[in-house]
Amino acid sequence: MNRTPLHAEHLAAGAKLVEFAGWEMPLHYGSQIEEHHAVRGDAGVFDVSHMLALDVEGEGARAFLSRALANDVRRLRRPGNALYSCLLAEDGGILDDLIAYRLEETRFRLVVNAATADSDLAWLERQRSGTLQLRPRRDLAMLAVQGPHAREKLGLALPELRAAAEPLEAFCGAGHDGAFVARTGYTGEEGLELMLPVARAADAWQRLLAAGVRPCGLGARDTLRLEAGLLLYGQDMDSDVTPLECGLAWTVDPASPRDFLGKQALLSRARRFQALGLVLETQGGLMRAHQAVRSSRGEGMVTSGGFSPTLQASIALARLPPESRPGERVQVAVRDKLRDARIVRPPFVRHGRILV
Amino acid sequence: MNVPDTLRYTGTHEWVRREPDGTLSVGITNHAQDVLGELVFVELPAVGRQVLGGDACAVVESVKAAADVYAPLAGEVVAVNSALKDAPGQVNKDPYGAWLFRLKPAGEADLSRLLDAAAYEKSST
Predict the structure, then answer these.
(1) CB-CB contact of B125 with B9 (8 Å)
(2) pTM for the whole thing?
């Protein structure tokens, strides 16, 4: 099993480790619920070094990504800009979701999921031509520092990065002395994501913890992203669905003149369902992936679910008939019972506030 | 692993303790709470319910999983630990103190048919 550069730090912080996509990762450090609340109310740090940073360099980098990514990299007008995008197969199915950063005029960085890193790299290699370089950056560690006090505490812990981090606008990043810091995240809170050389990772981690940033595991990462209505690749989306079917229409523009992989399929494929949120109306009962959903409009399926520590109720993301509307009632097959749930439009929680 | 040898166990991760009044307290083992993760909801049986050994009679739910708790032996539910409704996390903190329900066994309760600590430890690893 793979280990991140922070493995020893996880053990020292009392992590319960689990296997995730071939990596030994912290699930929690004692209480995933307390970690969740720490990110909603203060600051937490996640080791996300299992994800792969993949640098795309060379003259044709922008043209290459303009075709390879479903979202339009031409929106990255200046170095430092970041963009969320799907990587699509020819049939419009989603191969992965990623963040693309423009580092320099002709240098970009993609951050892709751990489970799909190898297949993404192979796919992009096949699309590549000319002098373009694809360079996996396993020499970098990645930390996500998230929460309303994340920026302030990162500035205290790592003062050398303060000048780069403080002026950042949302979805922008800046480099400093081999490190890169960006105002992005996967929690629905303010925060920063930090990439830095492996050799400097443990020191940065220790300084963040010393500044009062709480170590957080994959358990809290999942409940935070679920509350924020952010999709998880492999659960809420995969190669069987298109971005138009899982709430990611905002990331693609099939009507634009730009040609990109999967575009023709998006124009011709029928939309079978839409992605919306569910809140369980009964006390007890836990919505989980693959549970069947019934409504007056037809059948659906939960794609990911769990307990929301902020709402104190079970919430889920689900594929529902295209005509479904927020406010309507559905029934979810939770173990041996059908339980009532209410359709809502995600996010459930953003910046510490309940929105549904 | 924390498996007190003063208790009896089932293959489905319940522990059983005979109380001075002859009733049997039932809870879930340290291993079970560790696998489930932090509990956020506990559903307890109705007092007075008659159960057979192996009947599902309580539910424990964590942030990510739900599991049935089974009656280890036949009997009548004579008490439930209602305090857990507002503090399900107590099961994580003190799995062998936080009993879920008490059974008055039907007839002579033969606890020797349940697993002892060594046998449970062997079965759950």
Answers:
(1) no
(2) 0.95
